[in-house]
Amino acid sequence: MTSDLLAPLDLAFWNIESAEHPMHLAALGVFTANSPTAGAHAAELLATRAAAVPGLRMRIRDVWVPNVRLPLAFGGATREPVADFEPFDHVRLHAPTADFHTVAGRLMERPLERGRPPWEAHVLPGEDGTSFAVLFKFHHALADGLRALTLAAAVMDPIDMPAPRARPAEPPRGLLGEVRKLPDRVRGTFSDLGRALDIGASVARTTLDATLGARSSAALTSEASGTRSTAGVLVDLDDVHRIRKTVGGTVNDVLIAVVAGALRRWLDERGDGSEGVAPRALIPVSKRRPRTAHPQGNRLSGYLMKLPVDDPDPLRRLRTVRTAMDRNKDAGPNRGAGAVALLADHVLPLGHRLGGPLVSQAARLWFDILVTSVPLPSLGLRLGGCPLAEIYPLAPLAHGQSLAVAVSTYRGSVHYGLVADAEAVPDLERLSRAVTREVRELLAACEV
């Protein structure tokens, strides 16, 4: 294993983290236990297998290195192997619990230790002995959703998954060679600047369009308390397909519309009211290609849209979401407001280091809620022979925001993972029930 520089977006995630807003993504997997000691056996397996996974031995270290484009020094970070890696420091077996999500919420509050490989696995045995859960946490600078899936799958029981293509090694560069290439790099820098200005202008224009007429709710914004709660919702994928076939569009359109309807129901039930509420949702879009040559780095853009929370008609809400998503897709992930993530490639690492705290606080000016989809393999996953029954993806919570929603489809079910600031949203379970009721309402509307 060799060290490599963090990609710009990875570096941005590394630098915007704070104690109140840790930048790890996670997944809570619930397994069917085949014995009362299945949880303890799973913890031993995870630690043993983690030692053999190169990606789990990597830590992130701040460095000062020469700029690859211009002869300047800048503050970046490298991803490098750890020689004295102790996997049992990263895999922890907890006491039995009757509520996996309550424990997961407390664990989501804790930032990952930055001096070690930034990941953890927490094994939570169930009190009844029939199940156990594993909470995987990965820092966003180490992995995006697809990369985290690859790392987690590497410590599960073996399944057939396509191996990523190895990155070709670059020949060593001497100083004379760098000087000779300087004119081309100067031209490349100005070309990059032009692309950055084009993206920036598109982001500003479409963000303004999405902001006009948008109004969030105080329930979705809050001062950071540093607390976290999580909840999970299971939805039958066949129900989602029935709705999609009736109205048209994609499965993802239906899943986003369900979030809009659930927010409406939740706001009305808690007395905040949904009238006039149309929060801006950021929908991340992966730009990773299959078998990419750069598997470690984040490859993300995104779409920005107003959720039609204020519309009382469930089918009209779905059509509004479909129209907005079609418009975003026509513009492409390089042109919409969500493309702001691509600007990270055009910022010097020193800019990420110095500007990270400011960028993190600007999130609430850009969007009100994150709604992200995390793909999972269709094959059943197992750990120690115990089948994975449920899997809830959990997204980081941006500064000044109270709620984030992540969705995965696995083995015929849709799994909604909800993460909230526990003090700002003490009734997260009410929102999870609203998700289920919204699916029923959409089904009923399709049958009329």
TrEMBL record:
Its EC number is 2.3.1.20. It comes from the Bacteria. GO terms for cellular component: plasma membrane. Residues 6-254 form the O-acyltransferase WSD1-like N-terminal domain. Belongs to the long-chain O-acyltransferase family. NCBIfam families: acyl_WS_DGAT (TIGR02946). This is Diacylglycerol O-acyltransferase. Pathway: Glycerolipid metabolism; triacylglycerol biosynthesis; Lipid metabolism. It is an enzyme of class 2 (transferase). It comes from Streptomyces phaeolivaceus. One of its GO terms (molecular function) is diacylglycerol O-acyltransferase activity. Residues 297-442 form the O-acyltransferase WSD1 C-terminal domain. Keywords: Acyltransferase, Glycerol metabolism, Lipid biosynthesis, Lipid metabolism, Transferase. It catalyses: an acyl-CoA + a 1,2-diacyl-sn-glycerol = a triacyl-sn-glycerol + CoA. GO terms for biological process: biological process involved in interaction with host; glycerol metabolic process; response to hypoxia; response to nitric oxide; triglyceride biosynthetic process.
